[in-house]
Amino acid sequence: MPYSHLNDYPADIRERAARISLACFDVDGTLTDGRLFFDSDGRELKAFHVHDGQGLVLLRKAGIAVAFVTARASAVAEHRAAELGLEAHTAVSDKLACVTAIATRLGVVLEQVAFMGDDLPDLRVMQRVGLSVAPASAHPWVRERARWRTHAAAGHGAARELCDLVLAAQGHAEALLANALRVEGERLEGTA
Predict the structure, then answer these.
(1) 8 part of a folded domain
(2) Contact call for residues 3 and 173 (beta carbons, < 8 A)
(3) Quick one: pLDDT at residue 188?
(4) What does the alpha-carbon distance between residue 90 and residue 163 come to, in Å, rounded to a whole number?
């Protein structure tokens, strides 16, 4: 069965998603629900959604570079990025300069970059990239200026929505679905 949800997106968003070579994500309020947890020793804790992680890995495997770009110094974000095989840029004071540097290093123009963010530190970079995305729970000032908004809230699959959109727009969804079904079918046959 073909991936049919691509037509649920506006044509201009599908076209922009088809051109993405680099996807960058803020962390707090984008990949997490925005709450900050600290243990009694002051160590930071974060909760990441497994669906988002799967989507980020699928992007990377499809040849799309993925990076975390966050203003906070966060060993937790660095660890999560390393676990997924992604770049992490933490303690970033100028997200536009950081994303521009990553794009330049990769030979990508800003029109080929997607950025997902939720609050004022993300706004400058979101206004310059080809596809700016805000989670449903983003601050209204940012949400209303993003080219596209997810249905899911931050930390609850919002990043996966962007990943799925880009993968589908670039023609990868069909193969991913077929491969997942084939692999699962082989496992089931082996247990009978």
Answers:
(1) no
(2) yes
(3) 46
(4) 21
- CATH number for the domain harbouring residue 181: 3.40.50.1000
At 5, the pLDDT band (50, 70, 90 cuts) reads confident
Question: Which residues does residue 23 pair with via DSSP β-bridges, in sequence order?
Answer: 66, 114
Could you tell me the pTM of the whole model? 0.91
- Whether 103 maps to a domain, the answer reads yes
Q: Is the pLDDT of residue 186 over 70?
A: no
Assigned domain for 110 exists: yes
The single residue listed with the structure tokens 């691509």 is 6
Residue-range definition of the domain harbouring residue 171: 18-191
CA gyration radius, the chain: 17
| Cβ count within 10 A of residue 146 | 22
How many domains is the chain partitioned into structurally? Answer: 1
What is the C-alpha to C-alpha distance for residues 135 and 167, in angstroms, rounded to an integer? 18
The answer to whether 130 and 13 have CB atoms below 8 angstroms apart is: no
Mean per-residue pLDDT of the chain: 92
